[in-house]
Amino acid sequence: MKKIKLDIVGLSYSQTQSGAYALVLGEVSGRRRLPIIIGSFEAQAIAIEIEKMTPSRPLTHDLFKSFAQAYLVEVQEIIIYNLVDGIFYSKLICSDGKRSVEIDARTSDAIAVAVRFDCPIFTYEFILSTAGIVIEGNDFVYLENINENQEEKTVNTSSVGSGFASLSIDELKTKLQEALAEESYEKAAKIRDELNKRKAS
User: pTM for the full model?
Assistant: First the structure.
C-alpha cells in the first residue's frame, strides 16, 4: 500500500470529550486533515517539543529518546496503519543500522516520539478516506463517514492572560522558569508568547 505523508497542523480542545485534545494531522500537498483524540499529557508532550520548550526534568518521551540513542537506535518513521472502532493503530519503525524493527504504539505516543526524532509520519489512503476531513476554504467539511458531533474547536495559544501584560521582562522570565519547574506548560506557553510579543515590539 502506498503511504501518505502527514504533518502536524494543529492541536485543539475536544468538545466531545472532557479533558481531551484533538491532534490534527494534515496531508502533505493535499487538503485532507486527520483529527485524532488524545489525552492531555500526550498533548502537552507534543506541544512542548514543537514549541522547543525545555522541561525541568525529562518527560517520558524524552527518556525514550535518550534510551534509544544510548543504544544507537533511531526511529525512522511513524505509520498510522489501521483504524478499528474509532481507534487508530500506529507503529514505530526503528533501526540500529543493521536491522529494522516495528514496535506497536498508541498513536499519541508515536507522534510524541516522532517530533523528538524529527521523523516523518505516514498513513494509508483507506484511513484518510474513512476518518479524514476535507478543507474547503477556511472551513472543515466532514467526509460522509465523519460524525458531525466530532467537530473540534481550535485552541488559540497566542492569547495571553491579562495578568502577564503588567509584568516586566525580568518578572516574565522568572515566571516562565517557575511554570516550567511546576510542569505547567500551558501557562509557560502564554508567558513565552508575551515575551516574544515584547521582543517584536
Answer: 0.72
